[in-house]
Write a structure and sequence with these properties.
The chain is an alpha/beta fold and 566 residues long. The chain contains 22 helices and 14 strands. 53% of the residues lie in helices and 12% in strands. The chain starts with a helix and ends in an 8-residue tail after the last helix.
């Protein structure tokens, strides 16, 4: 419904501008402005339910003061809004500041929205922005060489919530984990476990500095060593087969740990895509051959190069080294070509900040494959710092050790972990306060939101016991400022979802849910839901029931539970 109201307002604005200035300006630029009209939802309620800055955009073109233009548009707007096709839409319009047009909606718009949500539940809150476009969202994709770190945890929370946002906005979303299960890091993993295995057998080992140092390596080695049947099998293997065995066993066992950690975090992938299988399929060679035919691959200095400078990269990139081994770029190009071949309209990759420099070459690769660079979006998920009692938690306590997702989950739980990892814009560094995340007070934002949901659940349960009927209430009885504030906050849910989907960042939803909870708590503190007036009670129960639906759906998108009791 939000989209429908916005569309009606834009149509009304466009018509108002045309009626005021179409005769004086027939320039293409004039119609460009008309066709790119946008509305914003003001942060402050005194600036209306919607605002528009079109007068400032028209000022230079019309050679007229923007405030005068805005006054003309508002005058026309008020005349048109009295017509039958618009008479249920606008309550008032005004000009503020240098020429901002503020629009106030009629209460019926809010009433209709409440009714729609109560009738269709969360379905009414979804958008059709994506219109079923297929999106492949690749995130986390940590090497299977150790447990997931705090950095991976934030990527997991952001990626999963973003997938939910896009699905709610009308996209067909597939979650994918790219498994880098071959190459030097896997070989080193296998060698690390093998050496610790030998230590357990009594051999004296000088452990290399470049090997994985964590105690988890010893734990993995012990698992294999303590299995007597497996130990006999290992002893019969040749040295190369033994190294391969430990690499494969290590990678698989760590992958199992990663899958369990993600599952406990509420993150599940539709596809686990193996780089090893990509190599076996012949797709890397095929992709490079196709690029060569297009003139984007050449040989120099004994290596094979991708001509990425033709697509804006600062230098050409090696895809096959002089020793015949592929660089990371070669399978990555083939992998992205395969994504497109699987029929996805849009690719989204979530990477850590250490991959920022990799973006231009992947954008170049996408263009070389014959796609628009906008078909690939890369989101850099900044790091998180854990704090306890105001002090940063050491992220590396001893060599080879780091704070893991499992440790955070154990300390603060899934709900708080997921919410806190989302509480800053994805491209901003995050400070994660462990002590705050554990508090069961209004200071803790996730507790604050969940408490609002639980409080409403309790009120509605009590009303049900008293046989209050919430069907077909008289919403015109909701006249208090706090009631209108609550209706407006409810109405803005879809706008928030729209912005999150467009910006590819679920952060805005954490802010919105806190605001909605705050507006509800203020309403509750000043007004009795169960009043002596049964008809007013009926209307208020209907109102807060709508809040409950939105809170539950918003928390669901973020991967956070919505308890009935606390």
């Amino acid at each position: 419904m939000f989209q429908r109201v916005e569309k009606q307002l834009l149509s009304l604005l466009k018509e108002s501008i045309e009626s005021s200035y179409c005769c004086t300006s027939r320039q293409p630029a004039f119609y460009d402005i008309l066709n790119s009209l946008t509305l914003e939802v003001p942060k402050e309620k005194e600036f209306g339910d919607f605002s528009c800055n079109v007068a400032m955009r028209l000022a230079r073109l019309l050679r007229k003061d923007p405030k005068s233009i805005a006054l003309d548009i508002v005058s026309s707007l008020k005349k048109l809004s009295s017509e039958i096709r618009y008479d249920t839409l606008i309550k008032d319009a005004e000009v503020k500041g240098a020429g901002f047009i503020n629009i106030f909606l009629k209460e019926k718009v809010f009433f209709d929205y409440l009714a729609l949500i109560n009738d269709s539940q969360e379905q009414a809150l979804k958008l059709d922005l994506g219109r079923g476009a297929r999106v492949l969202l690749e995130f986390v994709s940590a090497n299977p060489t150790g447990s997931l770190s705090v950095a991976h945890a934030r990527q997991a929370a952001v990626g999963d919530a973003l997938a939910n946002v896009l699905a709610a906005a009308g996209y067909d979303v597939t979650r994918e984990y790219y498994l880098n299960d071959e190459g030097n890091q896997i070989n080193i993993l296998g060698s690390s476990i093998l050496l610790r295995y030998k230590e357990l057998g009594g051999e004296k080992i000088e452990f290399p500095e470049d090997h994985y140092q964590g105690t988890y390596i010893t734990d993995l080695a012990r698992e294999l060593f303590d299995d007597k049947a497996l130990r006999l099998k290992i002893e019969k293997l040749s040295v190369p087969d033994k190294e391969l065995f430990f690499s494969e066993q290590g990678a698989q066992r760590i992958l199992d740990i990663i899958k369990k950690e993600l599952d406990d975090f509420g993150v599940r992938f539709d596809v686990w895509y193996s780089q090893k299988e990509l190599g076996k399929s012949g797709k890397i060679e095929s992709t490079l051959e196709n690029l060569k035919k297009k003139g984007f691959i050449y040989e120099a200095e004994g290596a094979v190069w991708f001509k990425s400078t033709e697509f804006g990269d600062d230098k050409d990139r090696v895809v096959r080294k002089s020793d015949g081994d592929y660089t990371y770029l070669a399978p990555d190009i083939a992998y992205h070509e395969d994504k497109f071949r699987r029929g996805f309209n849009k690719l989204i990759n979530l990477w850590g900040p250490d991959h920022h420099g990799y973006i231009p070459r992947m954008k170049a690769a996408v263009r070389a494959l014959g796609k628009d660079s906008q078909d690939l979006s890369v989101i850099i998920v900044q790091l998180a710092t854990l704090f306890r009692k105001g002090q940063p938690v050491p992220m590396s306590t001893r060599k080879g050790q780091y704070v893991t997702l499992r440790e955070v989950l154990t300390e603060v739980g899934r709900d708080a972990s997921r919410f806190f990892f989302l509480m800053r814009k994805t491209d901003s560094h995050l400070d994660f306060d462990l002590e705050l995340a554990k508090k069961q007070t209004s200071e803790n934002p996730v507790y604050y939101i969940q408490y609002a949901h639980a409080r409403i659940s309790s009120i509605l349960a009590g009303a049900q016991d008293k046989k209050f009927d919430t069907k077909e209430p008289d919403l015109s009885l909701l006249k208090e400022p706090e009631e209108r504030d609550l209706m407006k906050a409810i109405f803005e849910f879809s706008y928030c979802l729209f912005v999150c989907a467009k910006q590819l960042d679920p952060y805005g939803l954490t802010v919105y849910l806190q605001c909605l909870s705050g507006v509800f708590h203020r309403f509750y503190d000043r007004h009795k839901c169960l009043s002596p007036d049964d008809r007013l009670t009926q209307a208020r129960l209907y109102l807060i029931g709508t809040v409950k639906i939105e809170l539950a759906f918003g928390l669901k998108i973020l991967g956070v539970s919505s308890p009935e009791r606390m």
